[in-house]
Amino acid sequence: MCKPLQSHRIAVFVALACLAANASASEGDADAQPAQVAPVVAQAPFSLVPDAVWINPGVLSYHFNRNAGYREDNWGIGGQLDFSDDLSLLGGTFLNSDNRRSHDVGVLWEPLHLGPVKFGGVAGGFDGYPYMLHGAWFPALLPMASTSYGRLGANLTVVPNYKNRLHGAVVLQLLFRIW
């Protein structure tokens, strides 16, 4: 994505190139009509209206420490807005592995596509984990793989162990497309 200053430089360059082409065309022929210059319109790499809207019933987790008694059916409600094949917004609430209410929000970017599976990562935040900042919000970067077929989809990630504050797990989120 272009930075604002780079976008202006590109627009100025295109405008100057059009003017130069117009000037050189009119130099050779006195009767030549000036070339029409189309306005330069910057287009975002994604739409501001989502391509798809998904809901989910929370997540299922499989913890690396099988003897700790962590909750693995992390039911809740969440949503995902797909703005392109690569970019989505995520958010929701669920009962976490410590049996506490958590909230999450994130931006999912999956630039690598191998057949029906996309790979990338999510940058976002979570709260509700009592041993991580006493339950306050904290940032997180997680790898993500996802796939979908018709109105069904799935996101798969790995949460690493972090000291004695977060409990490592493989996490599966099932998605249902509503739009």
What does this structure look like?
With 179 residues, the protein is mainly β. It folds into 2 domains: 1-43, no CATH class; 52-177, Porin (Beta Barrel). 14% of the residues lie in helices and 47% in strands. It contains 1 helix and 8 strands. It has one helix spanning 4-28, and strands at residues 52-63, 73-82, 87-95, 101-114, 117-126, 138-149, 152-159, 169-177. Strands 1-2-3-4-5-6-7-8 form an 8-stranded antiparallel barrel. A hairpin with a 5-residue loop joins strand 3 (87-95) and strand 4 (101-114). It is globular and about 40 Å long. It starts with a helix and ends with a strand.
Q: What's this entry about, in short?
A:
The protein has one helix at 4-28, and strands spanning 52-63, 73-82, 87-95, 101-114, 117-126, 138-149, 152-159, 169-177. By secondary structure, it is mainly beta.
